[in-house]
Design brief:
CATH class of the largest domain: Alpha Beta
Keywords: Oxidoreductase
Bound molecules: NADP nicotinamide-adenine-dinucleotide phosphate
Number of domains: 2
Number of strands: 18
Enzyme class: oxidoreductase
Largest sheet: 7 strands, mixed
Shape: globular
CATH superfamily of the largest domain: Medium-chain alcohol dehydrogenases, catalytic domain
EC number: 1.3.1.95
Strand content: 25-35%
Helix content: 25-40%
GO molecular function: acryloyl-CoA reductase (NADH) activity; acryloyl-CoA reductase (NADPH) activity
Order of helices and strands: EEEHEEEHEEEEHEHEHEEHEHEHHEHE
Protein name: Acryloyl-CoA reductase
Structural class: alpha/beta
Length: 383
């Protein structure tokens, strides 16, 4: 098996064709015809360099006062197992990253860990043919940032079948989208797969100023849907209208104390919900005949106090959305679509930027419910 990344010109040679001892470069050494000797291939050099290198990371540690995120120099033992080493350009701030630094947050099994469920950057070294040094890539989900060191570091290493080559987006836009944007796209895709069209009626988006919600509003509006944005932030009307919401309403149900009816007035054709809990129960009872709810989150709670009525009397479907273990082919397809037909039209309006050293501050804002939109965490050059 030849490794494209080895096919480089030797600095001391004018010969650009490298031939390994068996006619390819798979042995780890390449034959340089002009100097008539075997020379370690660049990939082997990069791999050796990685084994001895040190780099900077934000590492989450458990302490008596909770979980702290500390800037730290780490060694190659912090690179997880995998065949693709990525020089990280960006990560981003997601709800799950906030849980990773929350005591009993339920997502990290063992500390210390480098959080960062999103890794966006360029391939630094690779053991597989599918990637070459310099390729722009995104990796997210699987165990990244929860049990496999993640994107809050200058370098990260992951298995090749967790990696998506960016073909329609630049690295910064991919970071602005991140896991939350991907989840929004997955939610929209699942509604479209069920046959939803703009002619069916309005689509509700809950947690509308959040990462999943804000990108969902933008994508749905770009696809021609009438979008109703539900938010708990009273000052978010202008933002959500600019993202494409036709109407902005408060959190649901309007009266959180009122007893829920098994079926209420049909108000929406479908919903993208990242809130869960009582809000989701209310939404299910208010979706029109044959409608669907794509549910991805639980910021409002994990209980679902509903009945079977919406399902058996209105044919409503509850579509579960999981971004972490989506098969890699579907994941790659969706990332391509995020740069084309699903490309949010107002990404610059919903994105914020912070250096990685401010990650803890941003994640605490997510925990406190004051964060809006998406925050890109700049890694390269920001330590
Ligand atoms: N299934 C998956 O693969 C997947 C992937 C990504 C995220 N998620 C989940 O989806 C949810 C949202 O993630 P995110 O990254 O978008 O988080 P986020 O950026 O922090 O947004 C969450 C939004 O939820 C709303 N919210 C917060 N507390 C609430 C409460 N007590 N009741 C009702 N609404 C509340 C707020 O929006 P408003 O102020 O506008 O109401 C907030 O901005 C999280 O539960 C996350 O774990 C799941």
């Amino acid at each position: 098996m030849c490794r494209r990344s080895w096919r480089r010109r030797c600095a001391s040679s004018t010969d650009s064709s490298w031939i390994g001892p068996c006619g390819c470069s798979a042995s780890g050494w390449s034959w340089c015809r002009s100097s008539a000797r075997f020379i370690a291939a660049p990939i082997a050099r990069a791999a050796r360099m990685l084994e001895s290198m040190e780099f900077l990371a934000m590492v989450a540690h458990e302490s008596d006062s909770g979980i702290v995120l500390a800037r730290q120099q780490v060694g190659a033992d912090f690179l997880g197992p995998g065949d693709v080493t990525i020089k990280v350009h960006y990560s981003s701030a997601n709800y799950k990253d906030a849980l990773a630094i929350t005591p009993r947050g339920g997502v990290v099994r063992k500390y210390p860990i480098i959080p960062g469920i999103d890794i966006i950057g360029e391939v630094f070294a690779t053991d597989v043919d599918d990637f070459a040094p310099g390729d722009l890539v995104v990796a997210h989900g699987y165990d990244i940032g929860v049990s496999h060191n993640g994107g809050f570091a200058e370098y990260a290493r992951v298995p090749a079948d967790w990696v998506v080559k960016l073909d329609t987006l630049n690295a910064r836009d991919a970071a602005a989208l991140g896991t939350a944007g991907f989840t929004a796209a997955l939610s929209v895709q699942s509604l479209l797969d069920r046959g939803l069209t703009p002619d069916d009626g309005a689509v509700l988006v809950t947690g509308a100023t959040g990462g999943v919600g804000s990108v969902a509003v933008d994508i749905l509006s770009g696809l021609g849907f009438e979008v109703i944005a539900s938010t708990g932030k009273t000052d978010a009307g202008d933002l959500l209208t600019e993202l494409g919401a036709n109407e902005v309403i408060g959190r649901l149900p309007e009266d959180p104390e009122a007893k829920l009816r098994p079926l209420g007035k049909a108000q929406w054709a479908a919903a993208v919900d990242s809130v869960g809990g009582k809000s989701l129960a209310y939404i299910l009872s208010s979706i029109g005949y044959g409608g669907a709810v794509a549910v991805s989150g639980l910021t409002g709670g994990s209980d679902l106090p509903t009945t079977v009525m919406p399902f058996i009397l209105r044919g409503v479907a509850l579509l579960g959305i999981d971004s972490a273990y989506v098969p890699i082919d579907r994941r790659r397809e969706l990332w391509t679509k995020l740069g084309k037909e699903y490309r949010p039209q107002h990404l610059s309006r919903l994105e914020n930027y912070a250096p990685i050293t401010d990650a803890e501050k941003v994640l605490r804002a997510i925990q406190g419910g004051t964060h809006s939109g998406r925050t890109i965490l700049g890694v390269a050059g920001e330590f």
